[in-house]
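Try this one yourself first.
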């Protein structure tokens, strides 16, 4: 329960006192109303607002005419259009994020909770979502979207507070990657198919670029004289050119094999790996090229992201510090980098070696 008084200005320029009243009605529903408070002073407006609050607490809204003073808490279906426009679009979230919201809302949230007022969504509804038979990872994605919607509703004071939503436990999956021999075989097979395929494989495996970053790489950002790539553009499918994931550009050193692969390419296009007629390479074109190289090397079909996993895994296996891997890969969180740390046998061996030294010291 809360009552606040603020000064507000009419479009005509006349000042007035506005009452902001938030209460829990006798029927258990959360109610909020903002309206002009009578009175010429703050104390008069506050006295009226408290009387109005007391009336709502005792009688609710029974007997009031159809032109209600405030607005009922909207249902999830009623709130979603505002959320998508005023949050997702206004904050310029990635188009992929908008598509994820659209899919989750259409297939999971709205069929189950569309008619439920936001302030009534609680633990029982969360349990219904958890029992829908989806994989734990998919269920957690659905719950994450619901959590975001309710938190925004609380921040906008549409509801009093957002409920606590906990996800399901997920088994940590180790990312797939090519070992050193398989990666070398893939590079050799790509070389047999042309310099463009070698550059594609090296950009992912030697520099850790994401699929969209490979497609968005321009020659003006490939500084071969400095031995660095400036990764500042990401061309995701259907989104045009954007900043890389996390909205952060980064510099990545160029290995000698990658430099040689880039020097062998034609520079008639602005793009390092152009598609047809010198335009940017399509997502399907990138994947099909990757499949050709894998088939030539006798490797199963995997998306281009396996090259990025290979880059991070090889760094970890060679003993690179987690912070270095995080910066080179452009991970927003250290937790993302942590999944590769089991591949650091050198660090584990060093720790066991210290235990042996301690044991030997005690024996002496």
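Now uncover the answer:
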């Amino acid at each position: 329960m809360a009552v606040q008084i603020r000064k507000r200005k009419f479009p005509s320029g006349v000042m007035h006192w506005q009452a902001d009243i938030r209460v829990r009605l006798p029927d258990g529903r959360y109610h909020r109303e903002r309206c002009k408070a009578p009175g010429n002073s703050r104390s008069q407006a506050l006295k009226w607002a408290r009387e109005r609050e007391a009336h709502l607490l005792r009688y609710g809204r029974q007997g009031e005419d159809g032109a209600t003073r405030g607005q009922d808490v909207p249902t999830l279906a009623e709130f979603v259009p505002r959320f998508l426009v005023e949050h997702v679009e206004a904050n310029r979230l990635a188009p992929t994020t908008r598509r994820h919201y659209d899919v989750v809302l259409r297939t999971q949230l709205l069929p189950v909770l569309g008619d439920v007022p936001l302030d009534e969504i609680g633990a029982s509804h969360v349990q219904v979502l958890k029992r829908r038979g989806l994989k734990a990872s998919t269920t957690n994605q659905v719950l994450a979207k619901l959590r975001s919607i309710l938190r925004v509703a609380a921040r906008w004071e549409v509801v009093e507070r957002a409920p606590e939503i906990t996800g399901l436990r997920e088994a940590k999956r180790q990312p797939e990657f090519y070992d050193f021999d398989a990666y070398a075989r893939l590079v050799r097979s790509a070389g047999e198919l042309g310099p463009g395929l070698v550059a594609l494989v090296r950009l992912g495996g030697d520099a850790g670029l994401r699929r969209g970053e490979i497609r968005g790489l321009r020659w003006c950002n490939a500084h071969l004289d400095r031995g660095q790539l400036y990764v500042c553009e990401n061309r995701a499918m259907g989104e045009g050119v954007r900043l890389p994931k996390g909205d952060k550009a980064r510099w990545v050193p160029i290995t000698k094999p990658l430099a040689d692969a880039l020097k062998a390419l034609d520079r008639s296009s602005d793009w390092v790996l152009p598609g047809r007629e010198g335009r940017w390479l399509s997502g399907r074109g990138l994947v099909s090229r990757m499949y050709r190289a894998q088939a030539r090397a006798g490797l199963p079909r995997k998306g281009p992201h396996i090259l990025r996993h290979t880059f991070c895994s090889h760094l970890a296996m060679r003993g690179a510090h987690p912070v270095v891997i995080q910066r080179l890969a452009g991970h927003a969180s250290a937790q993302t980098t942590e999944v590769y740390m089991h591949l650091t046998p050198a660090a584990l061996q060093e720790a066991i070696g210290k235990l042996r030294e301690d044991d030997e010291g005690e024996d002496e």
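Discussion: The CA atoms of residues 174 and 339 lie 7 Å apart. Residues 65-70 have pLDDT under 50 and may be disordered.
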